[in-house]
Amino acid sequence: MTNTPTYEIETKFLKTAMLYSARSEARYYLQTVAIFKRKEFIRIVATNGHILFCAMQKIEPDYNNHYEKDFDKLIPLDELKRALTGYNKNFASTLRLDMTPGNPDIVLNGFSFKETEGTYPDITRIIPENISNEVAQFDTKYLDVLQKSCKALEVSTNSSKIYHNGNNPALISFGLENCFALFMPVRPGAVHNVKDTTIVSQIKDIAGCTGPAPQYPNKTKSAA
C-alpha cells in the first residue's frame, strides 16, 4: 500500500498569498499560488510582477524519518478560493495538501484539481542584497493590499514596516520571522514632475496660507 504524503499548509499564508497573485490572463502562470517544497521546508509564494509575498513552513519527516521528493506546484487561484470556501479559522488553521504518487491531480482540503502548467519566476533573483533606505514611490493601490495582508496574517497594521530601497524592491516586514513581501517602486507620473517649492506653493494657496485669510463662520453664540 502506497502512503499518500500530506502537508499541512498554514491557511493565513494561503489567504495572504492570494492578494499578491496576478489577475490578468496575459501571465496565466501568475494567476496562482506557488508551493515549493525543498527537503524539510515548504514555501508559499505569489506575485503579480509588481508585488510579491513569500512565506516558509518547516515540515516534519514521515514515519521512516525521511522527506518525500521535492516538488513545485502552481495552485490556480480559482481552485484555491474554492478550497477555502466555508473555511472557519476557529476550527482549523491549516489546509491539507495531499500528494498521491503517480496522480497528476492536486488534492487540497478534499478538492481535486489540475495544477497550472508553466515555469514560475525565480524569486531569488529579486531579493535585495541590502537596504538603502532611499525613499521611493509606490502605486497607491497596493496600500490596500498591505492592510489586507496584516488582517490575513492576524497582525496589527502598525506591525508592518516598509524598508525603502530606492529603485530596488522595497522589503515589507510584518513583524513575523517566516514571511515577507516585496513592493516594486514606480516612477511618479508626469503631473508630479514639478519642483518641491511649486508643490508647497500650490498647497498653501489651497489651504489659504497666502492671500486674504479665509473667513470662517463665527459659531460663538451672542449673549441674549
Can you walk me through this structure?
The chain has 224 residues and is α+β, with helices and mostly antiparallel strands. It has a single domain (6-183), classed as DNA Polymerase III, Chain A, domain 2 (Roll), CATH 3.10.150. It is 18% helix and 26% strand. The chain is built from 4 helices and 11 strands; from the N terminus they run E-H-E-E-E-E-H-E-E-E-H-E-E-E-H. It has helices spanning 11-18, 77-84, 142-153, 196-207, and strands spanning 6-10, 32-38, 41-47, 51-58, 71-76, 94-98, 105-108, 111-114, 161-163, 170-173, 179-183. The mean pLDDT is 84.
What is the tally of helical segments? Answer: 4
- Summed up, the domain count is 1
SSE-based structural type: alpha+beta
Characterize the overall form.
elongated
- Trace the largest sheet across and list its strands: 5-2-3-4-11-10-9
The beta-strand count equals: 11
* Text of the CATH class: Alpha Beta
| Cα-atom radius of gyration | 24 Å
Task: Produce the secondary structure layout.
Elements: E1 6-10, H1 11-18, E2 32-38, E3 41-47, E4 51-58, E5 71-76, H2 77-84, E6 94-98, E7 105-108, E8 111-114, H3 142-153, E9 161-163, E10 170-173, E11 179-183, H4 196-207
Antiparallel strand pairs: 1-6, 2-3, 2-5, 3-4, 4-11, 6-7, 7-8, 9-10, 10-11
State the main characteristics.
alpha+beta, 224 residues, single chain, 26% strand, 11 strands
Question: Nutshell version of this structure?
Answer:
By secondary structure, this protein is an alpha+beta fold.
